[in-house]
Every structure is written in structure tokens, then in C-alpha cells.
Specification:
- The protein has 184 residues and is α+β, with helices and mostly antiparallel strands.
- Helix content is 43%, strand content 26%.
- The protein has four helices and seven strands; from the N terminus they run βααββββαββα.
- A four-stranded antiparallel beta sheet has the order 1-2-3-4. The protein has a three-stranded antiparallel beta sheet with strand order 5-6-7.
- Helix 1 packs antiparallel against helix 2.
- The longest helix is centred in the middle third of the chain and has 31 residues.
- The chain is elongated and about 80 Å long.
């Protein structure tokens, strides 16, 4: 999934409040590469053993004898991997970065009972760099935007694995300069 622009008329729901006068300029999610290969692997780990076991037990002619017991065990196995697949999707969907006209916001929810939100004011961003390391990120066009901040104890702010990181860096740079020119 690519970095998504949020139109001004849209009022998306975020797991954090926006400040007065703050406008969302860009909503960024990790590249689809962080969701689909792992999801396919989890699906294969769930389905292949059940299919193989059903085939093997059928070949040795004991599947009918095991009947309900086999299918209960298979359902529990598939249920476990289904929950893991759901949380894989949940983490992907709830790991967002939002660039506004005032700050960058990193919001992550690993599960429904956790939430981590970190922010960095645009005026505190000193240096930025884009990192693309490896064949897959280079070919698929995703990478990290690393922002060095001047705030006390914050240090580095990373936007990880997003599509078109150069465009996001340019947007942050432009808005940072505009915010600095505006003054206090």
C-alpha cells in the first residue's frame, strides 16, 4: 500500500487528537511487502499441515475412524493460525505515521489493549535522510525516513518501510521550512 494523501474534506478517525489548526497532509503506512508475504506464509503454515494430514490419514484409511477428533484438532489448529493471521493484519493496519502541517505522529497498536503514540514537532527536525537497503526495497520502492530531532530525549524519529520515502521526506522538508518561516 502506498503513502496515502488525506483530502482536506475527509475526517479520518485517528487514535490520537489533532491540535487546533492542525491539518493532515499525508497518512503513511508500511509498504504492502510487510503484510502479504508474511500473511501468505502464515496461511500456508495453517492449511498445508491439515491438508497433508487429511490426505495421509485418508490414504492409510483411518480418517473415517478418527472423524470428529481429527476435525476438532484441525479446527483448533486453523483457529490458532487464523488468530495469528488476524493480528498480523491488525498490526499492519494500526501502524501509521501522519504528517501534519505542525508535526509528525507515529501511532502503533500491537493489539486492541495497547497503544503507542510519539510525535515530533516539525520545527524540531534538524536533519533527515532516506534509507533503502537491499534488493527488495530498491526494486519495490520503499524505505525509511529518518529524522534527527532537537527535542530533549527524543533523538531520532523513524518512519519505517513506507512507499516513496523520498516524496515523504520532501513533504516534511517543505512543511518544516514553512513552519519555521511562520515563526513562534
Amino acid at each position: 500500500m502506498s503513502a496515502e494523501s488525506v483530502p482536506s474534506q475527509a475526517t479520518p478517525s485517528f487514535p490520537f487528537p489533532l491540535q487546533e489548526g492542525e491539518r493532515v497532509l499525508e497518512l503513511c503506512r508500511r509498504h504492502w511487502w510487510f503484510l502479504w508475504p508474511r500473511s501468505i506464509l502464515l496461511l500456508l503454515v495453517a492449511v498445508v499441515p491439515v491438508g497433508f494430514a487429511a490426505w495421509l490419514l485418508s490414504e492409510i484409511d483411518v480418517l473415517d475412524d478418527l472423524g470428529v477428533f481429527f476435525w476438532i484438532a484441525a479446527a483448533l489448529w486453523l483457529g490458532y493460525w487464523g488468530v495469528r493471521l488476524f493480528f498480523n493484519w491488525y498490526r499492519y493496519h494500526n501502524d501509521i505515521w501522519v504528517v501534519t502541517n505542525q508535526r509528525i505522529i507515529d501511532s502503533f497498536k500491537a493489539h486492541p489493549f495497547s497503544k503507542r503514540v510519539a510525535t515530533a514537532d516539525l520545527v524540531n527536525i534538524q536533519d533527515m535522510s532516506v534509507l533503502k537497503s537491499g534488493i527488495v526495497p530498491t526494486i519495490l520502492g520503499f524505505g525509511d525516513v529518518v529524522c534527527e530531532t532537537a527535542g530533549a530525549g527524543t533523538g531520532t524519529f523513524r518512519i519505517i518501510g513506507i512507499p516513496r520515502p523520498e516524496a515523504v521526506q520532501l513533504l516534511i522538508d517543505r512543511e518544516r521550512d514553512r513552519e519555521r518561516m511562520r515563526g513562534p
